[in-house]
Amino acid sequence: MNHSHLHPPHAHPPDGGEVRRSRGIQRTTLVAIVTNAVLSVAQVAIGLFANAFSLVADAAHTLSDLVTDLMVLFAGRRGADPADTNHPYGHGRIETATTMLLGAVLVAVGVGFLWSSGLRLQDMEALPDLHPAALAMALLTLAAKEGLFRYTLAAARRLNAPLLEANAWHARSDAASSLVVAIGIGGSLAGYPFLEPLAAALVGFLIVSMGLRLAWKAIRELIDTGLSEEELARIRETIEQTPGVIGLHDMRTRRMADRVLCDAHVQVAPRLTVSEGHRVSDDVYLRVRAAHPEIQDILVHIDPEDDGGLQTVPPGPLPGRQEALAMVGTLLGGDLPEPGRVQLHYLGNRIDVEVLLPAPLPPGQAEALRLRTRECLREHAFYRSIRFFEQIAP
């Protein structure tokens, strides 16, 4: 008996935890949007007043963050949408794709710092005189961006949202750029203008490294990289401890944002009925979901035997049910009653047939049936056994 059991995600509407998570992502992102909008306006005003073009450039960088914040807000809302016909596994990959895009933005920002630092090292004499108000604004921006980073990172870890974590590190890159601006302005005011391009180069390397790490993490998810061996071992233990499960093989996992999709081949007793095998698969599903809440859905494939080797060695041309029923009908002939039930067990690349007769057979007919069955088994090697059972009247 091979039975695939699937609980599709669209059968389960988003629970309260998913709704709270989505709202938490949106609330955190709105805080970032308001903060970046206020800072960008203040940077432009003070930068123009203090002749600090680095502040104006940093304001342009902050304005670009508003675009990414809006992307995060959109992904946070769409990622929580329930499954539909076109997206039967939900919309969690929207978060993944946006995380990868934000990682690419971090790489671009880091490369921009490296390029800018190189240009400044070549033309340090062109830096204009600055007003001390520029340094105050740079330090205020640095404090605000660092605070936003810590707030967003804490929310990302609380909500288990890689998307927010990517945005948090984006805020840290903004804080790093503000630090570069503060060091550059402070160095210029103190007579050491070379400090800005050197700091920009160091921060550029750090931002590129962080962007690559986040982008690679998202790419691993998009190419369906499985869980670690430690996590797999915990899931295997939960499945193997389920009553009725006697074996487990070919378990696979993949991530979708903060959730995990899993499928596994579960071995049960070879002669269970379909309904009892289905009950075992239900138990596996419920136990795994209860013990591992990060698993969004699990596909349980019920096997009557360890068919791991059959994945590479194709089974022989075993007859189907209609052919087996025709064989049983031939054995019974026209003078014996139709069978009440016929059960087929495909085990070890052969077939066991169990036939339930509606009434006991006379001794002579029973002996003739036994002889015909023995001859049939000699002629057809793919039948391991054909057994007839007589129903006992209540």
TrEMBL record:
Biased composition, class Basic and acidic residues, residue ranges: 12-21
Residue stretches of biased makeup (Basic residues): 1-10
Record-annotated Cation efflux protein cytoplasmic domain positions: 227-305
Family annotation (PANTHER family): MITOCHONDRIAL METAL TRANSPORTER 1-RELATED
Transmembrane segments: 30-53, 97-115, 174-192, 198-216
GO molecular function, one term: monoatomic cation transmembrane transporter activity
Domain Cation efflux protein transmembrane residue range list: 30-223
Region of interest called Disordered, as start-end residue ranges on this chain: 1-21
Keywords: Membrane, Transmembrane, Transmembrane helix, Transport
UniProt-recorded name of the protein: Cation diffusion facilitator family transporter
Membrane topology annotation: Multi-pass membrane protein
Family: Belongs to the cation diffusion facilitator (CDF) transporter (TC 2.A.4) family.
Primary location recorded for the protein, binned into one broad class: membrane
Subcellular location, record wording: Membrane
NCBIfam families named among the record's database cross-references: CDF (TIGR01297)
Any one Gene Ontology cellular component term annotated for this protein: membrane
